[in-house]
């Protein structure tokens, strides 16, 4: 039922798809509740150390990833545009300061996440779109495809209670 993430790049768009054994409702909670996001979001070795989420149109998801190796922090904020539980989230994500002010440290992207029933589980699909080629190229050089795919591996492990919690997260 579950497996590796399929990653497709087309122009200024990156699409990631994966099947999960969890229901769309369970995946929705993992994608929208701060305590859940802190247990899996981000690439390996970069756990979330701060997370708030006001999941409504115009609401903000604000988070910080910290490298376990260097201690370097990366802050980001996403403004939700569409929220249809447990089916669809659209947002504009940008790098930010710890106070939530937008920065140009990393390129911003429009994101759409859809969840749909798939047998006893759910199909996850994320589509990221950049406004221009320069931002897209910067994002790919920074490892967005590999990082997001690895985060979905962590989400799989998070949803499987037999796996230990990720390093650097709260109990």
Walk me through the structure.
- The structure is a single chain.
- The chain has one domain (6-159): Alpha-D-Glucose-1,6-Bisphosphate, Chain A, domain 4 (2-Layer Sandwich).
- The protein is built from four helices and eight strands.
- The longest helix is centred in the C-terminal third of the chain and has 16 residues, at 144-159.
- It has an eight-stranded antiparallel beta sheet.
- It is globular.
- The protein is of the alpha+beta class and 171 residues long.
- The chain has helices at 24-32, 34-40, 133-141, 144-159; strands at residues 6-10, 13-20, 48-53, 60-66, 73-84, 88-95, 109-118, 121-129.
Blueprint of the fold:
Layout: E1 6-10, E2 13-20, H1 24-32, H2 34-40, E3 48-53, E4 60-66, E5 73-84, E6 88-95, E7 109-118, E8 121-129, H3 133-141, H4 144-159
Antiparallel strand pairs: 1-2, 2-8, 3-4, 4-5, 5-6, 6-7, 7-8
Helix pairs in contact: 1-2
Counting DSSP H or I runs of 4 or more residues, the number of helices is: 4
- Which structural class matches the secondary elements? alpha+beta
CATH class: Alpha Beta
Low-confidence stretches: none
* Annotated CATH homologous superfamily: START domain
Q: Supply Rg.
A: 15 Å
Distance between the termini: 28 Å
Strand order of the largest sheet: 1-2-8-7-6-5-4-3
In the CATH hierarchy, the architecture is 2-Layer Sandwich
What is the H-and-E element order? Answer: EEHHEEEEEEHH
Helix content: 10-25%
How many distinct folded domains?
1
List how many beta strands DSSP finds.
8
The CATH topology is Alpha-D-Glucose-1,6-Bisphosphate, Chain A, domain 4
């Amino acid at each position: 039922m579950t497996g590796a993430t399929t990653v497709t790049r087309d122009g200024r768009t990156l699409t990631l798809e994966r099947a999960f054994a969890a229901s769309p409702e369970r995946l929705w909670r993992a994608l929208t509740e701060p305590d859940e996001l802190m247990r899996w979001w981000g690439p390996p070795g970069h756990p979330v150390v701060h997370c708030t989420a006001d999941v409504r149109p115009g609401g903000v998801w604000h988070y910080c990833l910290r490298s376990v190796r260097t201690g370097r922090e990366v802050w980001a904020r996403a403004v939700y545009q569409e929220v249809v539980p447990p089916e669809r989230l659209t947002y504009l994500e940008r790098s930010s300061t710890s106070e939530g002010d937008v920065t140009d440290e990393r390129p911003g992207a429009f994101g759409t996440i859809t969840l749909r029933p798939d047998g006893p589980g759910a199909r996850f699909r994320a589509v990221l779109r950049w406004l221009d080629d320069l931002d897209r190229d910067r994002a790919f050089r920074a490892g967005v495809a590999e990082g997001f795919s690895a985060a979905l591996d962590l989400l799989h492990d998070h949803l499987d209670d037999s796996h230990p919690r990720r390093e650097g997260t709260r109990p």
